[in-house]
UniProtKB/TrEMBL annotation, chain A:
Region (Disordered): 1-22
Full protein name: F-box domain-containing protein
Classification lineage: Eukaryota, Viridiplantae, Streptophyta, Embryophyta, Tracheophyta
InterPro entries: F-box-like_dom_sf, F-box_dom, FBL13/AtMIF1-like, LRR_dom_sf, LRR_FXL15/At3g58940/PEG3-like
Organism from which the protein derives: Erythranthe guttata (Yellow monkey flower)
Pfam families noted in UniProt: F-box (PF00646), LRR_At5g56370 (PF24758)
F-box domain span: 32-85
UniProtKB/TrEMBL annotation, chain B:
Xref: InterPro entries: SKP1 (IPR016897), SKP1-like (IPR001232), SKP1-like_dim_sf (IPR036296), SKP1/BTB/POZ_sf (IPR011333), Skp1_comp_dimer (IPR016072), Skp1_comp_POZ (IPR016073)
Pfam family, one: Skp1_POZ
Biological process (GO), any one: jasmonic acid mediated signaling pathway
Database matches in SMART domains: Skp1 (SM00512)
This protein's record includes keyword Cytoplasm: no
Descriptive protein name: SKP1-like protein
Keywords: Ubl conjugation pathway
CC per GO annotation: cytoplasm; nucleus
Family: Belongs to the SKP1 family.
Domain SKP1 component dimerisation, first and last residues per copy: 108-152
Gene3D superfamilies (UniProt xref): Potassium Channel Kv1.1, Chain A
Subunit structure: Part of a SCF (SKP1-cullin-F-box) protein ligase complex.
Lineage: Eukaryota, Viridiplantae, Streptophyta, Embryophyta, Tracheophyta
């Protein structure tokens, strides 16, 4: 690769410094170790591009690199990139214990089978701005309150298998702009009817592969919300009308991808442009469409992308949908 | 200012080993350092670049000309950058990242950083140290202590191949 083509004309460092006619001294010293002359910020950028185990390795090169490693602003532990080794937990513990900077902008855990509370506390104590927790936490445990009072937090990704999401009594996330929820259980007694209204700066909400148990409507309202995505839900519950059958099997729907763009964002009444993907036309899906059309008074366009299931009795389903009552006089429904 | 005359302006850049290079102003101002000099009106004569040697500067100018000839198409720019860096050896990459930093050219900086990271990935400490000529400034005792801390990094598979 790169080295191969370089080999034939490879200059040794000594040869280089003697061949350059002026400013010799500086070059001789500098050439000894070019990368270490980089400002720490740039060394940091390079290390942040590496899997963390490789970054740790580079941290062994010299004192300069060690100091860069110990103050990295991004710590992303991904179990997939760890070499075959037993001591993953110890590695995370030690890395955090030795970290010397007071702020860590990005803290990510990927595919960690048991996330320690101490790691999450480390992140919030270091004024984390982007926090990704992907894995599992102890059964029947809550996320530590400190996550919900972390004023520096801008982006929060929670992908915790089967974890029932709850928010503590005091929530103070004034800067949280992006929230992504994956593989969680959103359960009505634990969450309020309008659970996301407590995040004043929320602009983007994504809910993927979550199980939703709501008997009434789960509203999503936030003054700032401009982007809302729901993908592959186990229930269609987010806009749950009345009561959904409780058997999960009955509700497992064909990967409906449901994307909504808010114009201004309070509630579903302000929907402007709705796009429903992978629409199979099943009764429950038609109910969703019916509900949206009946309740979105500002709707201008609903685009429905149909999947193969829809081919069955397509025309009658389309004509049924086109006959639904629309609360917005300007709403167009387009099938694709 | 020269740029207002409508004809393409050429700048003369001087490396720290006194090589002179002509380059179109429109390409050279990819460097924020040079752009600031042009805007401040200090680009009349020869622009001395004290931290860049002739060989590296020649490479950087090739890049400036190449990338500025591509219209606003991020895909094409990216593939140009990949191709441009694909045949660079380690010393050149190290020189290039320093130059990009000095010249304040973020797109080149990011691309070279990514390339360096890619080269470092999955390699042993000794290999990286050799390839990039990184000076080992630990005392033997310190090194032993640091190695002890990260014992596991010396375990497992490491490739020291050059490709």
């Amino acid at each position: 690769m790169a080295d191969r083509s370089g080999k034939p004309r490879k200059r040794s460092r000594e040869c280089r410094s003697s061949s350059s006619s002026s400013s010799k001294e500086l070059l001789v010293i500098g050439d000894a170790d070019r990368l270490s002359r980089l400002p720490q910020e740039i060394q940091s950028d390079i290390l942040c591009l590496l899997p963390i185990t490789d970054a740790a390795k580079v941290g062994l090169l010299s004192k300069t690199w060690r100091s860069t490693w110990l103050s990295l602003p991004k710590l992303a532990f991904d179990y997939r990139t760890f070499p075959e080794m037993e001591k993953k937990v110890k590695f995370i513990d030690q890395t955090l214990a030795r970290h010397s900077k007071s702020s860590v902008k990005t803290f990510e855990l990927h595919l960690v089978p048991l996330i320690k509370i101490a790691w999450m506390k480390f992140a919030t104590r270091h004024n984390v701005e982007k926090l990704v927790l992907y894995g599992e936490i102890k059964k029947n445990k809550y996320l530590p309150d400190c996550i919900f009072t972390c004023r520096s937090l801008v982006k929060l990704d929670l992908a915790l298998h089967g974890h029932v999401l709850t928010f503590p009594e005091t929530v103070s996330l004034p800067n949280l702009r992006k929230l992504k929820l994956k593989h969680l259980v959103l359960y009505e007694p634990e969450l309020s009817q309008d659970p996301f209204s407590i995040f004043p700066a929320l602009e983007k909400l994504s809910i993927f592969h979550c199980t939703i148990h709501y008997t009434e409507i789960l509203s999503v309202s936030s003054l700032r919300l401009i982007h809302f995505t729901m993908v592959k839900m186990l229930t269609r519950g987010v806009i749950a009308l009345t009561t959904w059958p409780s058997q999960r099997e009955a509700l497992q729907l064909p990967n409906v991808e449901f994307l909504v763009d808010f114009d201004t964002g309070v509630d579903f009444r302000c929907l402007d442009d709705v796009c429903i993907k992978n629409f199979g036309g099943e009764a429950i899906e038609r109910m969703l469409v019916r509900y949206l059309l009946a309740n979105s008074s500002d709707l201008t366009l609903m685009t429905i992308f149909m999947n193969d299931v829809m081919a069955n009795g397509m025309l009658s389903k389309i004509s049924e949908i086109l006959g639904y009552e629309k609360s917005s006089p300007y709403a167009d429904v387009i099938f694709n | 200012m020269a740029a207002e005359t409508g004809t393409p302006t050429t700048l003369t850049l001087k490396s720290n080993d006194d090589e002179l290079f002509s380059v179109a102003e429109s390409a050279a101002i990819l460097s924020v350092t040079i752009r600031n000099m042009v805007e401040d009106g200090c680009a009349g004569g020869v622009i001395p670049l004290d931290n860049v040697d002739g060989k590296t500067l020649a490479s950087v100018i090739t890049y400036m000309n190449g990338i500025s000839a591509i219209p606003a198409d991020e895909e094409k720019k990216k593939s140009y950058r990949d191709k441009f860096l694909s045949d660079k050896d380690f010393e050149t990459l190290a020189d290039m990242v320093l130059a990009a930093n000095y010249l304040n050219m973020s797109c080149l900086m990011d691309a070279v950083s990514a390339k360096i990271a890619q080269v470092m990935e999955k390699k042993s400490v000794g290999w990286v140290r050799r390839k990039f000529g990184i000076e080992n400034d630990y005392t033997p005792e310190e090194e032993a202590a640091v190695k002890e801390e990260h014992k596991w990094t010396f375990e497992g598979v490491e490739t020291d191949d050059d490709n």
